[in-house]
Specification:
- This protein has 145 residues and is an all-alpha fold.
- The protein has six helices and no strands.
């Protein structure tokens, strides 16, 4: 697979996770709050959860636009926005692991680390611009309709 396919697939994965997360939080905030990695940070705040769910869906919209357009500036902007949020999220939770078991904390940090690593790799793929260049065609061949 070429860089464009990997980039589009990665963007789609990030968009999908944000969509699922946002809908989960907006439609079932109490269920989201009961998740062990969330509920150890009391108190429950429905307003904050609704805002977070809405922000997750907003980021999903930008990521979906990047998947559809595959325009370099939009792709990089969407990925950097996702990366900023993921780094902030990782740093916060890295400082608040004490209520979790060692195994749960390790799993949580691995998940949050992947949420930083994937967009960082995708930024690297998008940065040189190769994923946005048209593939070269042999002389005399026309593009498909």
């Amino acid at each position: 697979m070429n860089a464009r396919v990997w980039l589009r697939a990665g963007l789609g994965l990030l968009a999908g996770t944000q969509m699922v997360l946002g809908l989960w939080i907006l439609l079932l905030p109490e269920w989201f709050w009961k998740w062990p990695w969330v509920s150890h940070l009391p108190p429950y705040n429905e307003h904050l959860l609704q805002d977070f769910g809405g922000a997750s869906l907003a980021l999903a919209v930008v990521l979906c636009a990047a998947v559809a357009a595959m325009e370099r500036r939009l792709v990089l902007t969407a990925l950097v926005a996702y990366l900023v949020g993921s780094v902030v999220h990782l740093l916060f939770h890295a400082r608040h692991l004490e209520p979790l078991s060692a195994a749960s904390a390790a799993g949580f940090m691995a998940l949050l680390g992947a949420a930083v690593l994937l967009p960082a790799v995708l930024v690297w793929l998008a940065a040189d611009g190769a994923a946005f260049r048209e593939p070269s065609r042999p002389a005399g061949r026309r593009p498909p309709p």
